[in-house]
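User: Here's a chain of 359 residues. Predict its fold as tokens.
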Amino acid sequence: MRPFALGFLLLNGLLPLEWASASEASAIVPPEAKLELLYTRTAPISGGLTEGAAVAPDGSIYFSEIPVGQDKGMIMRFDPKSKSTTVFAPDSHKSNGLMFDADGSLIACEGSDGGGRQVSRWNLKTSTRTALADRYQGKRFNAPNDLCIDLKGRIYFSDPRYLGTEPRELEHRAVYRIDKDGTVVEVTHDVEKPNGIALSPDQKTLYVADHNNGTDRIDPSAPPPKKGAMKVYAFPLGADGLVAGPRKTLVDFGDEEGSDGMTVDTDGNLYLASRRPARPGVLVLDAAGKELAHIPTGPAQRGVREPVGMPSNCDFGLGAESNVLYITVDKSLYRIRLNARGFHIPWADSVAAGKASGN
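Assistant: Prediction complete.
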């Protein structure tokens, strides 16, 4: 199938899962499941992609619109009941990964290329933004990318650099944690270019996507860096929430593009937004790295200069939609109903249950 034909199917919400093998239409993915198109960008901003799907306490889905260059990014809100999408923040400060904390505030990773280069908190009622952290040991972050929050309310986030000519101050592209008192701790820099990040339901494993595509743009006059690791690691965590042993490689994409964002279900399975041109889609693995399912978002596109159907992130809904996976793909938002249920920090399910009962 040509990219143009795929684009037509995607834009019209008609993409079935016929590319999946019988084994992939597993207990997780119903055989009749289809991707449903919910939103496609219409704003006059250039380049980039949609990113950072995150479910709010009321079940709505927030996601980032990330442009390239001088255009301002936006944070969007999709309402599952009305199927309408509105602008929450007309200037996201180039937000990327998003997630809600126990207070119902939106936590955002703000990138570079004219962005905030910090982790911030948005108050939904007032639409006001405050900085949580923008430095480690006095040096500005590279470009906070994705995040997850543990049961103690501590924020883990990745800090690579893909775009922007801002001077780079930190030696490493690392994973950090913001503690409840605001202290920033380095969790690991045993990764070339950390991107997607998630915690296992038992809080004993930190998953990190190493997506080293070689782009850096720190010194435009220098030769571009060579591509590196395209892997997903599992780091064991100790009681203090810090790395307590050697990492394990769950999947190695070789010399193809690897995983971007990710999420987990209640069984501890990992859902990876895989940008591998030969097989783009959401790759579902168990905790040992065994493939359980694959949700295609595009056809094989080896050698295509600008492939389409490339997913960037995913998150499960809440309440009646706890088995609905939302996926950002190219410049659009999709969803698909699965047999699995997403894992969220406990406040999320309790809040959703309260809203469903009218409390």
